[in-house]
Design brief:
10 strands; binds iron/sulfur cluster; globular; alpha/beta; Rossmann fold; 4-stranded mixed sheet
Length: 477
């Protein structure tokens, strides 16, 4: 997948005019938040459950290298082959060479953000190996050549009519339909055929248990289980922070993950695999490869502040909490990770210079931080990135404060320095602002100067200030 984070502002502007997405995004936070809160209440003590989860993620970060070594040792003892990949290119090359060596013509994939991060589909396709996404949403997004709209529902926003046309064109569906069950059935028929002749399946990993060397996947469709059990060769790809210390920890994190992802106490399928098929077992792959991907994470880990980003468990709860995501949706983020999760991860993975608009597109309201079961302080991270950027700017130019805001603030501080100046300014500005606000034209007049107003109008202000009214009340007593 091409990285398009630099186009954030342009795509966001376009998405703000997309009425269908706007309607959909208007209801998204309520539905998800209500079901999330309801399911969290099923914990005897929801706050303690969250604290325990945050403590597990903190322990993972503190003991990361030790846990990874333990996982490697135990997974290898189970019969899995462990591959350490420093970069996405290395991981892609391994998968490609393996597929070529075994004469594989196509692969099926379970939903996996890390393979989106690696751009694995493009690499396979360019080299003549067809990748089939088997998660329904990912399948639709792949066929439409669009990035995921939402981490949990990559094609949540696509109208059924469009899906119907797509399935007729690309998934052998015969009749148009808007019935979601029939659409699901059509995708199932098409993909089942791929599973029947499958040689190699690729999945991500939700958790890798150091204590047992097991890998865990959670899902609701059963496609990951088919990806893990149908082929002779299975490749599971994990970014290195997916490790957890013990099976008990993994069980708790799964309970938190499912509640925060979809509002379920547990997803429909939880697959725990410890090595390839044993001689007395009927199902499972003959060969299991687990790729542990670094792709810049070791560097992230070296900085005490940025290593916090590695706590993320990709639950997506922060997306529904974010007022920015809930206006623009997932496309503007231009890569695998969207919402606050993407704003935290993408700058570290692909560079602050390519993601400037991402970590500035935040009001620092802190809603994401409140929701995050991993305990990430997103606003603090954004401020840190802004500071690093300003430092780099200062080193380059000697002064990072642009002229226009500096002059504006000079004027502001001059006006605010004396009460009489402030009063005159407020009295003069108020009718002017109200004139524009009432007619909704502030956006058109001020927008060219200041981006904030491009998509916002100020509300009409009260005719009198609180101070005026208070003085009048005092005088009347
Ligand atoms: S940042 Fe926190 S809330 Fe957002 S996806 Fe990651 S774990 Fe979930």
């Amino acid at each position: 997948m091409d990285i398009k984070t630099e186009q954030f502002v342009d795509v966001a502007r376009k998405e703000l005019k997309n009425d269908r997405n706007k309607q959909f995004l208007g209801v998204l936070p309520y539905g998800i938040t209500i079901s999330r809160q309801r399911s969290m209440q099923t914990f005897a003590d929801p706050e303690a459950a969250n604290d325990y989860g945050r403590a597990i993620r903190a322990e993972v970060i503190a003991r990361l290298s030790e846990l990874l070594e333990e996982f490697e040792k135990n997974a290898a003892a189970n019969g899995a082959k462990i591959i350490w990949a420093e970069t996405a290119a290395e991981a892609n090359a391994f998968v490609l060479n393996l597929a070529r060596e075994r004469g594989v013509r196509y692969v099926t994939k379970g939903k996996s953000m890390v393979t989106e991060e690696m751009g694995l589909n493009d690499v396979l396709q360019e080299n003549g190996i067809e990748p089939f996404e088997t998660d329904l949403g990912e399948f639709i997004a792949q066929q439409l050549h669009r990035p995921p709209f939402h981490i949990v529902g990559p094609a949540l926003n696509i109208p059924v009519e469009e899906i119907s046309d797509l399935f007729i064109a690309k998934a052998d569906m015969k009749e148009p339909t808007t019935d979601p069950v029939k659409l699901g059935y059509a995708a199932r028929l098409y993909l089942r055929d791929k599973f029947h002749h499958l040689a190699m399946g690729i999945t991500g990993v939700n958790m890798a248990v150091a204590e047992t060397g097991s890998i865990i996947n959670v899902e609701n469709e059963g496609n990951i289980r088919l990806n893990k059990s149908s082929p002779r060769i299975q490749v599971s790809i994990m970014s290195l922070e997916k490790v957890v210390p013990t099976m008990a920890d993994a069980m708790h994190m799964i309970r938190l993950l499912c509640r925060n992802c979809t509002g379920q106490k547990l997803s429909a399928y939880v697959s725990i695999d410890s090595g390839p098929k044993k001689s007395d077992e009927m199902d499972g792959p003959e060969e299991l490869y687990i790729i542990i991907l670094d792709n810049g994470r070791s560097k992230i880990y070296q900085d005490q502040q940025t290593r916090e980003a590695l706590r993320c468990i990709r639950c997506g709860a922060c997306l529904a909490a974010c007022p920015v995501y809930c206006k623009i949706g997932g496309y503007p983020y231009g890569w695998a990770y969207s919402g606050p999760m993407g704003q935290v991860l993408s700058p570290l993975l692909i560079g602050l210079d390519r993601t400037h608009d991402l970590f500035h597109a935040c009001t620092l309201c802190g809603a994401c931080k409140q929701f995050c079961p991993a305990g990430i302080d997103h606003p603090k991270m954004f401020l840190y990135y802004r500071m690093l950027e300003a430092q780099a700017d200062t080193e380059q130019k000697g002064d990072f404060i642009p002229d226009k805001p500096a002059k504006l603030f000079d004027l502001w501080s001059w006006g605010a320095a004396r009460a009489w100046r402030w009063k005159i300014a407020v009295k003069t500005m108020r009718p002017m602002m109200n004139y524009h606000a009432k007619d909704g034209v502030i956006r058109k007049t001020v927008a060219p100067l200041y981006g904030w107003f491009r998509t916002r109008d100020l509300p009409v202000m009260a005719k009198k200030t609180f101070h005026d009214r208070w003085t009048k009340i005092k005088k009347s007593r």
